[in-house]
Amino acid sequence: MSDSAQDPVNEHEREPVPEKARLGLKSFVGQFAGEHVAGTELMIGPLFLAAGVSAFDFIAGLVVGNLLAVLSWTFLTAPIATRARLTLYYQLEKICGRHVVTLYNTANGVMFTVLAGAMMTVSATALGVYFKFAMPQLTDTLPTGVGWVLAVLVTGSLFSVVAAYGYRFVSRFANIAAPWLVFMFIAFGVIGLREMGLTRPGDFWHVATTAIWTGGPPQPGQLKFTFWHVMFFAWFCNMAWHVGMADLSIFRFARKSWYGVASAAGMFLGHFMAWIAASVLYAVQLRQDPANTAVLPGPLAYNACGLAGLIAVVAAGWTTANPTLYRAGLAFQSLIPGSSRYRVTLVTGLVATVTAIFPIVTMRLLDFVALWGMILMPMGAVIFMDFWVLPRLGLRSNFAEAAGLHLNWAAGLAWILTVAACSWLVLSGRAQIFFVSLPGWFLTSLLYVVLSRILQTRRSASPLAAP
Questions:
Q1: For the segment 121-175, what is each residue's pLDDT rounded down to a tens digit?
Q2: End-to-end alpha carbon distance in the chain
Q3: DSSP secondary structure, 419-465, as one string
Q4: Quick check: 397 and 390 in contact, CB under 8 A?
Q5: CA angle at residue 330 from 162 to 232, to 5 degrees?
Q6: What residues contact 170, with CB distance under 8 A and at least 6 apart?
Q7: What is the CA radius of gyration of the chain?
Q8: Which among 112, 166, 119 has a CA at the least distance from the CA of 341?
Q9: pLDDT one-digit tens code per residue, 19-46
């Protein structure tokens, strides 16, 4: 009997999700709200303030960028997910062959694992306030003591067990935690605005422009942010999930494709309201002590709401780490078909916990997220073109499966050339990393279509072609 047959839960990793296993809209609203109203918002929000963004650029950029993210989930990811009902990894295997997918899944699993580790780091900062052990600063790369290591081990173990029990368990946990977390972030924002001098709603814009997001020079070492920086970051910080198609693995459970709109619960409660609230808390911290530029979610939340704030940070990190570890487990399990996703996820959680011990992972989170999106985005373009465009051009979808190929070099080469081109633009200083992924998507699409026509034409003309 295979390991997968002994799993406590069946996640349909290598088959379409059957009718009986599909979920309603509420499950996705809770999952997105729980995942994106997260402890990391207390790290990302302050960084906008440190970048010297103005109030208009910040608010308008968040509105437009988050709307584009919701539209990406709704019109790019969910329609394919609800038609094919396959995990990202199994769908890529059909398109690209095992060799390309092995490399991609390894990269994807590693990046999901590191991101889950960052969530564990965030939650551990809450324990640091309560138990009073030394916590890392922005410049730290190594653990700061035994207390820090133990806190990360505890949070990591809890997160891993929940994720191992599968998407239904992850969704159930998120639905329980999400409403309370939303309330807590609202409280963070209200308390912070009062501390900054807001006494009535009509004065918000005056306080926002003169005391919080003043548009002044950025802090030393930070890049100056404009509307375009905020918009593209809000849109593409989850690029691997929507444009990159990672959430095919999530939306394959959705009964309807329009359930992609559930992503708005995460974008506008998390990446709008929560980023604003966290930014305000950081403004309060700087007002109280201009020399205290540390970005630690635990202390920020504790200064606003005391013990309830610390509990919120732990829960927020948990609800983000759960689906992230679930995705990482699927990525690694797909490398060894027949292995137990449950056990693979537990091992992945252990690895994530080890990475979380080293604070450099979280302190460079924005750079990591941008790099991740750039690397994984091309495969989302490959899936989109393969599913919708190739059949209309008279070409075969899922060509690796149809032709019995272990390597679809058209997909692999399109991916490699796009990443190389985007990397060259960034490293040469011709473009910032926030702005290269959008043209990169179109470049991949063009390359994949052209190279697929060459591959399939040669294959069909070969006397050794598969029937």
A1: 888 888 888 788 888 876 677 887 888 899 899 888 887 877 777 656 666 666 6
A2: 33
A3: HHHHHHHHHTTSS-GGGSHHHHHHHHHHHHHHHHHHHHHHHHHSTT-
A4: yes
A5: 95
A6: 31, 162, 163, 322, 323, 326
A7: 22
A8: 166
A9: 888 889 988 998 788 778 777 788 889 8
- CA–CA gap between residue 198 and residue 113 (Å, rounded): 41
User: What confidence score (pLDDT) does residue 224 get?
Assistant: 92
Single-letter code of the amino acid located at 29: V
Provide the phi-psi class of 343: left if phi over 0, else alpha when psi is between -120 and 50, else beta: alpha
* CB-count exposure of residue 167 (10 Å: 0-12, 13-18, 19+): buried
What is the DSSP-derived secondary structure letter of residue 51? T
Residue whose structure tokens are 């499966």: 401
Residue 327 token pair: 């995705």
Pick from 47, 213, 48: nearest CA to 138: 47
Contact 148, 160 (CB under 8 A): no
Residue 243 tokens read as 């444009």
Residue 9 identity: V
Length of the chain: 467
Cβ–Cβ < 8 Å for 349, 159: yes
